[in-house]
Amino acid sequence: QRCLERLKSSRTKLLDRYRRTGAAGAGAGGPAPGALLVQEVMEQEWQVLRDSLPGRQGQEPLEQMPKDLDELAVLEKIQQELILQEQLVIKEYEQSLQFDEECLNAMLEGLDATDRIICPMCRKNNLTVKTHLVCCQCGLYISTQDMTEGKLRSLLESAVTEHSHRCCHSPEFTVTSGMEEEASLLMSCPV
């Protein structure tokens, strides 16, 4: 149980080691590269157990190793269980990486597939950009002159980028209109 707890607390160390060694051997069905961590964990716990026994501290390590076949079988079983636990952690990590990669690919495909702009007001729908009009299903409706998606994207990106150089908070967008003015898209910061 203590070996298992120590292994769980060494999760970060295990993943760091796995990242350094790469996925070599993980797909081959053999023990994962991090399997050495199980040996470390068992050796540390064996040392703690050995030191806690009265009158055994001064003996050589070889004399302190279990000689009984039953004891060796139990240790072997513990080691196999710990290796399975370790491989489970690595498998979860690989699945997480795969999920992240799939999400990134989906985002990139979405960017490649369309040159659309997400509405800065509702942040859900795509904007409809025409020469004299920018609108969205959420109700955003602005009259424009000679507007293109590329031009609008450039304006939005430069405004948000300039703001991010001075402030770490996200700006908000609203539509404003005065008595004599037409509707305008206003970017403001709550901070």
Automatic annotation (TrEMBL):
Ranges where the RPA-interacting protein C-terminal domain occurs: 118-190
Residue ranges constituting the RPA-interacting protein central domain according to the UniProt record: 37-107
Pfam family, one: RPA_interact_C
Any one GO BP annotation for this protein: protein import into nucleus
Keyword Zinc-finger: yes
Gene Ontology cellular component list: PML body
Highest taxon listed in the record's lineage: Eukaryota
Molecular-function annotations in GO: zinc ion binding
Name of this protein: RIP protein
Keywords: Metal-binding, Zinc, Zinc-finger
